[in-house]
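Q: Hi! First time doing this. I have a protein sequence and I read that you can turn it into a structure. Is that right? Here it is:
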Amino acid sequence: MQNQKPVKLIAYGCRDDEMPTLKAFQNREDLELKIVQAHLSTDNVYLAEGFDGVSIEGLSQSDAAIFKALAGYGIHYFSTRTAGYNRLDLAAAKKYQIHCANVHYSPYSVAEYTVMLMLTCLRKFIHIIARSAVMDYSLAGMQGRELHNMTVGIVGMGHIGKTVAKCLSGFGCRLISYTPHPTAETDALAKAVSKETLLKEADIITLHTPLTQDNYHMIDKDVIAQMKDGVVIINTARGGLINTWDLIDAVESGKVSAVGIDSFEHEENVIQIDHESSLIHNRSLLALKAYPNVVVSPHAAFYTDQSSKDMVTVSLNGLMAWLRGENNPNEIAY
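A: Yes, that's right. Below is the predicted 3D structure, encoded as structure tokens:
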């Protein structure tokens, strides 16, 4: 080990909360790490020249132009510090022979947030707080519902979906799930049912699946029509899973009684930006935010101290494993 050259990695889009973990990696003798706070783009990709691998934050540019440039620098290992990888142009990565990986992180970050959104929707918590802020302590219109009376349908039983089921187990609600590959473990946590059964029986539907070409707009007007009247929809996965305008129609008609979303369509130019004095060019988002029974948050479900540490650690360790001829357990198959 002492005779090995240090691995050279560059990390783009580094947030302040990631710095303690990143700097701990910088102190390692077997690694040379360059930290760049700006997101990767065609304007700064040149900084990667001379490095062996690249780690990015999810909002970085990761298209054909980027992969072509990286391949030109002799870089063939690329990691996103996110679980979702729908923004990566995997066809271009394959063309330029660049291995890509995502990360896993504490599933409790998103799972606990998901339960919070459910309770916020059921108990109309945002309205209660807004009223109390202006000294309105009336109860009219604030009656909520109890989670233990609900049937919760979990779509996707990966790490996060399973953890959502574990978190909900103490509330006494009925749990059902739809997943392409159910196992004895997932069935024990939330009874495996068909997609049609879940849509028909669930009072709350919560999404925990990656976004792919096959499931884009998996929730549209036709699917919503199969749901129970007054259903609550929670999305802490990816915005593209839901056809937003169809969801808006369902909220206006009363078919959907409440919505809690942490990821929304076309969020790339909205999240992680202060828009207090600027325009937001996302009409469907602005329409959703106008409804009193819709809770929107800025893709923050993942954002905990534990997950920030996990994302950096898994991303950099995976890149180092590749460069030492080992397997990266988070490699994305393409």
